[in-house]
Amino acid sequence: MYSLLRENIRIAIDSIRSQLLRAILTILIIGIGVWALVMILSAVKSLENTIAGDFASMGANTFSLQRYDFEVNFSGERKKVNPIISYRDIKAFEDNYQFPMSQTSVSFVGTTTAEVKYENKKTDPNIRVLGVNENYITNTGSKLQMGRDFTLFDIQNNNRVCLIGSDFLKGLFKDDNPLDKTISIRGAKFTVIGVLEEKGATFGNNQDLRVMIPIQTARTIFTEPNINYNISVMVDRAELMDVAQQEAVRVFRNIRGLTPLEENNFGMIRSDDLINRIASITGYLETAAWFIGIITILGSSIALMNIMLVSVTERTREIGIRKSLGATQKTIANQFFIETIIIGQLGGLLGIFLGVVSGLIFAAIVKFAYNIPWVPMIAATIISFLVALVARFYPATKAARLDPIEALRYE
Description:
Blueprint: H1 2-18, H2 20-56, E1 62-66, E2 68-73, E3 76-81, H3 87-96, E4 102-114, E5 116-118, E6 121-122, E7 127-132, H4 136-139, E8 144-147, H5 152-156, E9 161-164, E10 182-185, E11 188-196, E12 201-202, E13 205-206, E14 210-214, H6 215-221, E15 230-235, H7 241-256, E16 267-270, H8 271-314, H9 316-324, H10 329-366, H11 374-400, H12 404-409
Parallel strand pairs: 7-14, 9-11
Antiparallel strand pairs: 1-15, 1-16, 2-3, 4-7, 4-15, 5-6, 5-10, 8-11, 9-14, 10-11, 12-13
């Protein structure tokens, strides 16, 4: 039995070698189908991991009060624009929200087009400057690469200190230790006390090109009207999240002067809600990716079947000789089956290799977090095997049923 199997494998390999160009084209057809599946699914997974990681950086057990709210109606999700959250609102919230085992972070974006100077060097005017309080780093899940965080003393005394993103180490401070160095923003001097860990960029928003300064100091520099502030609350224990949110809503409704019959004119979102929302969106993308990949591989199976039918036709005389020498229908069918399986698996391996390489290149270009797509790779291996099974059935059956006398007459 094993000797017959080895002989069938040898014959299949010899046949592939004798028709090398056709075999290569067939492998490429299958490889492209598997490549599409692995590449699309790995790209979707990279997108999901990156966005989920960015939103998870809000910090665990965290919720935010914000200007915008999102409503779901029959036409989909719609953004509701509420009145801005003013400085008076955040100060009143800090004074009145006293929920135990929680801490409140307040912040605002002063500008996204600042130019930062250090000695005789300066950055491009694309730096994001934020005014924050002493809880901002903790509540957003950010970490320091070096130096220290803001203290309550820094915030209350409007100290001219700042935290900078990690990209400044590649630019302004390429050859210097940034700690205790002085930078200039719109003519105001700040001493660098810490450098944030690298976070990367999402959709062009570079998280490592930003500067954080005490919120009161930021208000003296950035005096544009109608500045919108952000409030973030972190609760120490997950089981207290719902109660903490209810209390935050009650306090903020009182600050906004809403009556019991009026709807909230502000939004609230939890860190885990964001992650769930992103997961639902990427779930649709993943389903679409599977559909596109399966359709592509279905086309590959049809192409493989046609090529094997051509091979059966061209090898009719060879099949007749083998059958006249005693080869059974099962033996002939197995020869074509093994040949198809070898071609299918080579195509699958090629597709997996191209898919992984393409995924790595895609992740590097868009700066997404890339993970090896194990599920798509395993699925591609199984699918390529099933493609070979489907594609070999009719050609192998046709070859096995050939009449040896008619086959020997074939020219």
